[in-house]
Amino acid sequence: MHIVTTIAGSDSGGGAGIQADLKTFQELDVFGTSVITALTAQNTQGVMDVLPIEQAFINKQFHALLEDFPISAIKTGMLFSSDIIRTIALAMTNLTIPLIVDPVMIAKGGETLLQQEAVEALRNNLLPLATIVTPNIPEAETLTARKIETVSDIRLAAQSLLQLGVQCVIIKGGHLANKDFAVDYVFFKNGKSFSMQTSRIATKNTHGTGCTFSAALTAFIGRQMPIEQAIVEAKKFIQLAITHNLSIGHGNGPTNHFAYQKFKESCEVTIGETQ
Ligand SMILES: Nc1ncnc2c1ncn2[C@@H]1O[C@H](COP(=O)(O)OP(=O)(O)O)[C@@H](O)[C@H]1O
Ligand SMILES: Cc1ncc(COP(=O)(O)O)c(N)n1
Predict the structure, then answer these.
(1) Helix (H) and strand (E) counts for the chain?
(2) Model confidence band, residue 174 (pLDDT cutoffs 50, 70, 90)
(3) Does RNA-binding show up as a keyword for this record (predicted)?
(4) Which of 69, 89, 202, 249 lies 20 to 30 Å from 180 when distance is taken between CA atoms?
């Protein structure tokens, strides 16, 4: 059994954060463990409050796992403050476990999940340790201090993130103004790149899409799948989870983690260039 870890915030509403990650891990046959960085009082309508966990206790959770389990992949989600980021970065130094960083910044409702002062720590302390970073467009803009409107802007932003030492950058196009397709762009340190296109699903139930995508990626990497195949399978997982989304709650409902195992054979991802 492969063991993977999510270092993220708790979403009491169950659609994003630690809860989305563990549900995704379970569906993909890996044993999920967690380091909780913050509690959120949250539902499909928004985040009502955030309670960050003390640095020392975050450290204890992480070391409890590292001392006991042969962890095969780690992902980070909501990290909230520069202190929390530095704690995680310090504990990750000298580990050779693949690290997937989902640079979560703002909830769908606009609430802050990463303090403004923490962006520098994310760039300078954590990204150099990352195997893969998965920003959406606004996150990539914040991390690179560049406006992103075209595919050429996406390529420049990815190059600037690769220069920090990340092995692979996936810029997710969920926020691009394309009503027909959801296209993500993948860039590797060795210069290789490709795009992944699926049909865009017209739904408001996209709570937790970024968390679920990066959790699926972490599970496949943890299962030792080759990195390019893991990225495409994670795109299938999120496409099916959005296609079969759950209309629960009064706001933006969550995605459906059960869909991949039922429908994966029928899901098409079109691979293209990044021009
Ligand atoms: N309406 C949609 N239909 C299909 N795929 C989508 C849709 N919205 C987002 N995605 C996909 O979900 C994943 C998460 O993207 P995104 O929503 O940009 O992340 P985040 O939740 O971090 O903002 C990406 O693979 C993106 O292409
Ligand atoms: C605890 C927590 N972590 C992350 C998100 C972001 O969710 P999304 O994946 O929709 O960007 C969230 N709303 N809450």
Answers:
(1) 9, 10
(2) confident
(3) no
(4) 249
**Other residues' Cβ atoms within 10 Å of the Cβ of residue 160:** 16
Q: What is the pLDDT of residue 108?
A: 87
Domain extent listing, the chain: 3-272
Q: What's the chain's average pLDDT?
A: 96
Ligand 2 center to residue 22 CA distance, Å?
Answer: 14
Compute the average pLDDT of residues 78-86.
97
- Give, in words, the CATH class of 3-272: alpha beta
Helices (H), the chain: 17-27, 55-68, 82-92, 119-121, 137-144, 151-162, 209-222, 227-243, 259-263
**What's the pLDDT at 176?**
78
Q: Which residues line ligand 1 (CB under 6 A)?
A: 136, 172-175, 182, 184, 198, 200-201, 206, 209-210, 213, 235, 238-239, 242
Residue at 275: amino acid letter: Q
**Distance between Cα 232 and ligand 1 center (Å):** 14
ipTM above 0.95, yes or no: yes
> Residues, the chain, total?
275
